[in-house]
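tool_call: predict_structure(chain=1)
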Amino acid sequence: MSIFSDVPQAPPVAVFKLSADFREDSHAQKVNLGVGAYRTDDCQPWVLPVVKKVERLIVEDGSLNHEYLPILGLPEFRSASSKVALGDDSAAIKDNRVGGVQALGGTGALRIGAEFLRRWYNGVNNTATPVYVSAPTWENHNSVFADAGFKDIRPYRYWDAAKRGLDLAGLLDDLEKAPEHSIFVLHACAHNPTGTDPTPEEWKKISEIMKRRNLFAFFDSAYQGFASGNLDKDAWAIRYFVSEGFELFVAQSFSKNFGLYNERVGNLTVVAQDSENLSRILSQMEKLVRTTWSNPPSQGARIVSKTLNCPELFAEWKGNVKTMAERVLLMRDQLKAKLQGLGTPGTWDHITQQIGMFSFTGLNPKQVEFMIKEKHVYLMASGRINMCGLTSKNIDYVAQSIHDAVTKVQ
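tool_result:
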């Protein structure tokens, strides 16, 4: 008998299982709309031109070596990342109450933030503090906070299936009813999986209640720039909350907007009440990092840092990001037009009203199963599709497949 005989088989991670099934499918017209990664119109991964340029600069820089980075990460990466999130003119940065923790992607930033909050937020080792995540949300949000030790993870209303948009009334009601000091995980932009974001006026209403009821904002910012093509627009909610005096966390990922998926480049931006508070917070963050990954890898952070800290490279990067965002917007326009042209039942306005990489199509589980089994179009069971998987070559087939699913399967 093995000492591990009682270990149960864990279910596969849904999105990776979907990709594995796609690879094994030999159908000539198969389409993968599941995995959250950018693809060109030839359905190929894209290494950003600015990234290629910076990688060459790094290779040719004789001053670099492979010594350990500081525990909290590359200082110039951390400061530049926080500045991208909060803006060049951020009063919080000028007041020296903003710090960063380099992390292993956005997931690592979420996890370090969650570990810190469980230990030190609103009392020591407070596992009973409610953590609210949107319904629906990125599947890892629940797991990250649960594995960090939080015992009370609750949904807050977000998606209105009937109107295929934001359930603002439900969201605001849940904010009003949440216990004071509850933690709310907020999507900064390009909500995953729905692609539906609050407007600035709606964000103001959310902020007013959270401020009045002493609720903690933990922003997940995985798509800044990628959503609209404009870095400032996509960071509007974060910057507004900071201007309203919130202490908050921002988990930043550079996987999408730099195309650095396998480099795992993330940053946890901490906005504290003052510099003294920030110093104590970061000292505890350092202890958490030390026992988690000890110190972070350098390559991806150097790529991002060199790009963000050089005006010419920064401008080039913004152009690359705009290229990706505009292709996604074009696919949204074309998919909506083709569905309307086919006379597909229902309204499809939500496709262009949503933003970012993902669209919540409104397809039900039976229709999704039809898409996969009969049409070889792979998407998540929730009906979420990655707009980057659409191309000029497959969009007619995908639109017809959606039409068939809607008209043949109830």
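agent: The CA atoms of residues 204 and 352 lie 23 Å apart. Proceeding to next step.
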